[in-house]
């Protein structure tokens, strides 16, 4: 049985609505965890489910919760701290991150 173009459009709209709701919920949860002082990193682990980029994740947090460069730097440093990299490499990358964020 062939789907009508209306059924296909309805399916796409439902997916878009679900994705938007999921992204906003994800951003809300991230914001709450950040405010609680928990270690938090922002990433795109769900790329197979949603087609969102890291830039889009950052944009949502900035737009809806007024996150600025200090929020993102903190999360990036937390992600680095939780990585499995050797300590000397972590320290070098942390210094590079901090320097890069100073120029933004």
**Helices and strands: which structural class?**
mainly alpha
Relative helix content:
55-70%
Contiguous runs where pLDDT drops below 50 for at least 5 residues: 1-20
Whole-number radius of gyration? Answer: 18 Å
Q: Can you count the beta strands?
A: 0
Q: Tell me the series of helices and strands, N- to C-terminal.
A: HHHH
Count structural domains: 1
Question: Alpha-carbon distance between the termini?
Answer: 54 Å
Explain this structure.
By secondary structure, this protein is an all-alpha fold. 69% of the residues lie in helices and 0% in strands. Helix 1 packs across helix 2 and helix 3 packs antiparallel against helix 4. It is globular, with a radius of gyration of 18 Å. The termini are far apart. The N terminus is likely disordered.
In short:
The chain has helices spanning 5-35, 54-65, 69-81, 87-102. The protein has 104 residues and is mostly helical.
